[in-house]
Amino acid sequence: MDVSSRREDDEIEIDLGEVFFLLLSRIWMIALCGILGAVAAFLISSFVVTELYQSTTKVYILNNDSGNITTSDLQLGTQLTKDYVVMITSRSVLEKVIEDNALTDETYASLEKKTSVKATNDTRIVSITVTDPSPVKAQYLANEIRKVAAERIEEVMNIEAVNTVDEANLPTKPSSPNVLKWVAIGGLLGAFACAGVILISFLMDDTVKTSEDVEKYLNMSTLGMIPVKEEEKHGKNQKSGKSGRTSRPSRSAEDDEEEAVPRRRENSNRSASHSRRGSAAVAKERSASMSDETGLVIDLEPDTGAEQEEDRGSTENAGN
Known about the structure:
Alpha-Beta Plaits; 3 domains
């Protein structure tokens, strides 16, 4: 039971529709990677990879002394074509080409790698192709290999003649690299690589993001969702910590209204006390001036009891 449950747990269900919409939402990223891959392939094929040129020569091999060619001669010649192909690239032929032309920068292995021999189907025509970074050298090597191979085939296989069908041509355009092919392959590789990375990151992501994920992975139904902006709070705390300022908690309108009531009461009390002090000072000045004129002491100060009653009334009005 444990093994079967583990196997079931190890299985990963992939929703093709979800994968399709995921790739569709990231289509701009896939296209960008494809363009970058195509540009990289273009730059590499144009400026990094060495251009190669191919030169081809063709020969026709006869194995009959007379000029008459029978059906048996054609069948035998077709069967012997494979032997000619092997003999043209033999060590004796290529090493003689290197020795006769003093090719110090070439070896048998390197020259064999540059040389390719192909026989046309159902014919006795053999094509000898040489590939080299220099077009002139490719043409020269193809002609030399053809000459030495013809002598070697006549000597070993007792062939009457090896006739030349086409001389080696001088190539004017490089055979490789094919820039368009490289660009197409680079674009496809970039797009597929980007899509693969997106799919791998999607499959490796096992975090729960929505209520559907809870029901899918935990087999539990969600009763409600509480939105919490943890990222914004975390970002604000980091900014306040960097600037060296402490962040104050947000205040509601009710809190501001509660603090404003006692402030208004204090302001009204202060204004009432200032007005009482001002009236008392004015009364003292008037009594002093009248006593100087008449010689009598006149008390014009306001009644403190009345003032206290007025203060209490103003305070009650402010509280209300």
